[in-house]
Amino acid sequence: MHIMEHTTEFRVRYAETDQMGVVYYANYLIWFEVARTEFFRERGVEYKKLEDEENIYLPVVESYCRYKSPLRYDDVVTVHTKLASVGASRITFEYSVKSAALVNAVGWTKHAFIDAQGKPIKVPAKVRKIFEEGN
Amino acid sequence: MHIMEHTTEFRVRYAETDQMGVVYYANYLIWFEVARTEFFRERGVEYKKLEDEENIYLPVVESYCRYKSPLRYDDVVTVHTKLASVGASRITFEYSVKSAALVNAVGWTKHAFIDAQGKPIKVPAKVRKIFEEGN
Amino acid sequence: MHIMEHTTEFRVRYAETDQMGVVYYANYLIWFEVARTEFFRERGVEYKKLEDEENIYLPVVESYCRYKSPLRYDDVVTVHTKLASVGASRITFEYSVKSAALVNAVGWTKHAFIDAQGKPIKVPAKVRKIFEEGN
Amino acid sequence: MHIMEHTTEFRVRYAETDQMGVVYYANYLIWFEVARTEFFRERGVEYKKLEDEENIYLPVVESYCRYKSPLRYDDVVTVHTKLASVGASRITFEYSVKSAALVNAVGWTKHAFIDAQGKPIKVPAKVRKIFEEGN
To answer: What is B25-83 written as a DSSP string?
Structure first.
């Protein structure tokens, strides 16, 4: 199984800094979400349509981030995303946040799959397929 | 008609600052929203229930803010809120953001009333009543 | 004087939505800021360097936004930016937020120029030049 | 050593919800920060003054959150905060986010101590003292 990372690139927004002069720590979780959306899109799955057309939702059940080196306003950031594991009803993404050659942060999020009523459901076949084909 | 202002008090969050060392300008609009919720509650209207139980929504159609003096992390802020005008299908709130004796910002938001399908509706009687009694 | 608009494009983040299912109104001000940064960059002025190297800051002194049509998660948004006026110590940007052929919002921000001590300063020559050449 | 938790209470802001109708996951980290500030204040340490007067900063080096039960707009939330461990140059806070009798989320943040130049420093005596006296 070969692993292809997905990469999302953007610039740090002024709004994302705090008075320490660096990116406020909660914003990394927002970037993880942006990266997940693009990860899915590149593999032919539009997360928006999962919600709108199939009533499948992926709430985060756990999040973790290690902040190694601060990012600043206007830095060009890339987030590298991998589907790290897929269980019966949970999936885990791993992220690496980089600028230039530096790894600024690493983290992961674990997700459940639920329906519109909030009831847990199995990982949909199309998502499982992404993992099995190597993501 | 006597005018009673509603006052909401809180402290500036670290997350609300930016690298200029002051509160980022978009956060004032978030505070206006917090103040609106409390304004309604004090007059016996829970905005949450308007949405959940009556399918009435108040999207913002215009916002304005004038920033007079910056606020900083941990400052104790009060937002003074008034229902400035009520039309057939629009209402306008006015806000004054203060810390100690200083007026840090003033602004207003204009709102439409819509139903769950996004269709414009008249200002509900209970909201109109707040205004007529003097808010 | 010919006017060239600058255009910034991005997708709506999940984090930018609220429970009404549309973009929360304060986020438009964040997008205006992203658009300003890119407006300057395209004209050879890095706002980051204005702050870091020249100790020139552009705090917002007024903001206005009219919300015409809601935006949703994953929509592709473009913000069109113009330098609308330049006074002795103030400048005003105008923004138009679009998706497909629709204008979703319009707004403006007025800025002062200050130094690192917060003292008002004149609009720097390089910023004035952008306007005079037609922005 | 007796352990006294600190409790911070507030209501969920509309801005903190997303289109799933619940609080967006990154906001829990913002609440952790609000809770830390109040934890310190209650023990006689103003974090603001640590930064402003002593040039001591507490950047987050790791964060973790487990989301157990979603929170909604206008919910009354309490965050319970404990200083879980104090090392030579690192401290860890633990948080429990509750509404009514329910535990909605638990998490922790690990912090370094640095000076104004970003150089790591030892945990200051006054912070160590909080821990030794039982927090």
So the answer is: TTHHHHHHHHHHHHHHHHTT--HHHHHHHH--B--EEEEEEEE-S---TT-EEEEEEEE
- Per-residue pLDDT of B18-72, as tens digits, reads 999 999 999 999 999 999 999 999 988 999 999 999 999 999 999 999 999 999 9
Nearest to C85 by CA among C108, C59, C104: C108
Task: Give the chain D residue whose CA is nearest to the CA of A66.
Answer: D62
**A25: nearest CA partner in chain B:** B15
The one-letter code for the residue type at B127 is V
Walk across the sheet containing A90-99 and list its strands: A6-11, A76-86, A90-99, A102-112, A60-67, D60-67, D102-112, D90-99, D76-86, D6-11
Q: Which of B118, B38, B105 is nearest to B69 (CA)?
A: B105
- DSSP class of C55: -
**From D19, D26, D73, residue closest to C17, measured CB to CB:** D19
Average per-residue pLDDT for chain D:
92
Say what the pTM is: 0.95
At B76-115, the pLDDT tens digits run 999 999 999 999 899 999 999 999 889 999 999 999 999 9
| Whether B30 contacts chain A with CB within 8 A | no
The rounded distance, in Å, linking the Cα atoms of D35 and D25 is: 16
Residue C74 catalytic? Answer: no
Which ipTM was obtained for this model? 0.94
User: What is the average per-residue pLDDT within D9-24?
Assistant: 97
Residue B119, C-beta contacts closer than 8 angstroms, at least 6 positions apart: none
The pLDDT of residue D19 is above 90: yes
Task: Collect all residues of chain C within an 8 Å Cβ-Cβ radius of residue B29.
Answer: 25-26, 29
> How would you classify the pairing of strands C102-112 and C60-67?
antiparallel
Cβ C104 vs Cβ C66: under 8 Å: no
- The mean pLDDT of chain C is 93
Q: Does D61 touch chain A (CB under 8 A)?
A: yes
Tell me the residue length of chain A: 135
